[in-house]
Amino acid sequence: MKSNQITVEISDNRKEKPAFSSLQFGKTFTDHMFVMDYTEDQGWHHPRIVPYQPITLDPAATIFHYGQTVFEGLKAYLSENEEVFLFRPEENIKRLNRSCERLCIPQVDEEIALEALQKLVDIDREWIPNVEGMALYIRPFIISTEPNLDVTPSKSYTFMIILSPVGAFYKEGINPVKIAVEQEYVRAVRGGTGNAKTAGNYAGAMLAQKQSGKSGYSQVLWLDGKENKYIEEVGSMNVFFKINGEVVTPELSGSILEGITRKSVIELLKHWNVPVSERKISIDDIYDAYKNGQLEEAFGTGTAAVISPIGELFWKSEKLIINDGKTGELAKKIYDALTGIQTGKVEDPFGWRVTVQ
Amino acid sequence: MKSNQITVEISDNRKEKPAFSSLQFGKTFTDHMFVMDYTEDQGWHHPRIVPYQPITLDPAATIFHYGQTVFEGLKAYLSENEEVFLFRPEENIKRLNRSCERLCIPQVDEEIALEALQKLVDIDREWIPNVEGMALYIRPFIISTEPNLDVTPSKSYTFMIILSPVGAFYKEGINPVKIAVEQEYVRAVRGGTGNAKTAGNYAGAMLAQKQSGKSGYSQVLWLDGKENKYIEEVGSMNVFFKINGEVVTPELSGSILEGITRKSVIELLKHWNVPVSERKISIDDIYDAYKNGQLEEAFGTGTAAVISPIGELFWKSEKLIINDGKTGELAKKIYDALTGIQTGKVEDPFGWRVTVQ
Ligand SMILES: Cc1ncc(COP(=O)(O)O)c(C=O)c1O
Ligand SMILES: Cc1ncc(COP(=O)(O)O)c(C=O)c1O
């Protein structure tokens, strides 16, 4: 496998770059992509960087019917002096492989995947917006390609990486969002696929999202599928609460995604000697803390927004206004620290930053 | 919409038909397929039958990332005097539309979908095996096609129908299977997508299937996701038990698929005045009935096998042998009645059979 050299075919038909200021998330793609194939007899083979181009598949390919697929999401950042950084990319590749296991997809070689990531970002580095808060979103994904309507793991797969320049999540800096606690729909349950980054989890979440959107909420806060009372996560973010000086986040229950931002926030807080714990948190705990005046902050964590303060939580028929609907001090401090490390503005005592050369 | 005429382009490159005796499920496809597109401004449009051919999509198409997709499965049968029959196809189209609702996919016009089904089967009718027990499997499906990495319903979709001649599910007639009760993994939970026919449910089920397969079990029996005690369904089948003269099947809990075979079996039993009820059934109820000698039969129901008797149920460390591991009398009677109606061998008092002309 390691002898597999990544070949490169440079596009001779470069696209025009959009005005970075008007970028919408995930709608613009760069000039190249990475592709690698899997077959039973050859394993993963033929890693290559080629011009960004359509995929052609048999209509019976299992991806279209049984959704055997996994993906990842991370970003490349441009520093003030034009260096390109990735943030803990090895964690994404490890998580990709854990997702593969759950979905019966053959795992990829971590070294090849990391090399592919770096090489591709390097080739398309001029697509990284040189604007504060913007970045190049990186989407590795694997799809099952065998034409077969039998419900059984595919015998062939394609691993791809595509890149998309993305705007600042907050147009005017970090800003609180309103979140509705979901009472009808469930994202995942222990024993299901909730801790894997796989398509079905996201398709299933759209209806609740759409309905809460109609009432003016940007995302839903999912409760656990068994008892509908323990807090899980938000859309594409893990969630943290600051209650009476202590920071708490739901423990990894098997049904929530192990966010890399979540992990980094926990490590950062420990480094700062801020009390932080991972445990079961019921929505009633949050409500009680709110009523007692102890719910000091709430925020989501994820690659897209890094830190997303929660200014309002809608639960049953009540609006819990947190920290006067403003960004909390701690949320802001974490945001500055993480984005500082990501873009090379501050020291990185943890060794999280990887330079693309 | 109804003015939308289905156009037909006949393939001038017909494939050679395989030896029907050696067919594996879902690996051989016919000469044509149906395609229809959806865009926000035109709605569903351009319905057409074209030669079977690959699909070309942008690598950022949401189907590859967020799995917004639904599908159906039914069969066309050839009668002894070469008539072609479908079994309750309108039920499949209705279920497709219910699945669409859950997955935020725009529903299709039932009349166009039914016309498409019939027209396509008619054009490829010589692909229906003229062998007892064989049929033409029909797979309608919808995929989301917009290139967009934002987790939001796609703005464009493609609806397709492909056809696959399939062998007899039981090479030597109806035969009991061994099923393991799943204790670790969960297929679906109330509030999730279990009652929709969507890819993610099947991807998530593969790992449990694979593991039970290693121990010699052909499928797993899923328990509910909340309490891990109520019986849900089996792989691609609903499940029935005959206990002390009464036939019971799990009620539609919101997390199991509303099988069309299930519905037909219930209607058939009522027609025969056999006591049948839909209710919550715990695995302990089944175990108790077994211990008391009252568990007379168990069988799965689904389009693929029609009726699949369960000869052994593995639960914790015990093997429950049902009806001496043989096909039960009632299972056989239902099987004969349903396949008789499907293939035109017996009267159809229910009006379930639809002739393709
Ligand atoms: C469901 C879900 N939870 C949490 C996260 C946050 O994970 P990370 O911090 O690794 O981006 C994401 C996004 O990746 C996600 O999709
Ligand atoms: C999960 C699941 N349950 C049950 C069934 C049985 O449904 P039907 O009788 O409509 O084929 C199927 C197959 O279609 C299925 O996929």
Task: Write a brief structural summary.
2 copies of one chain form a homodimer. Chain A has 357 residues and is α+β, with helices and mostly antiparallel strands.
Which helices and strands occur, and which strands form pairs?
The structure is a homodimer of 357-residue chains.
Chain A: E1 7-8, E2 32-39, E3 43-51, E4 55-57, H1 63-66, E5 69-71, E6 74-78, E7 84-87, H2 89-102, H3 110-123, E8 135-144, E9 156-166, E10 177-181, H4 199-214, E11 219-223, E12 231-234, E13 238-243, E14 246-250, H5 260-271, E15 276-279, H6 283-291, E16 295-302, E17 306-315, E18 318-321, H7 329-342, E19 353-356
Parallel strand pairs in A: 1-3, 10-11, 10-17, 14-15
Antiparallel strand pairs in A: 2-3, 2-9, 5-8, 6-7, 6-8, 7-19, 8-9, 11-12, 13-14, 13-16, 16-17, 17-18
The site of one pyridoxal-5'-phosphate has 13 residues of chain A, from helix 5 and strand 16.
Keywords (chains A, B): Amino-acid biosynthesis, Aminotransferase, Branched-chain amino acid biosynthesis, Pyridoxal phosphate, Transferase
Protein name (chains A, B): Branched-chain-amino-acid aminotransferase
Cofactor (chains A, B): pyridoxal 5'-phosphate
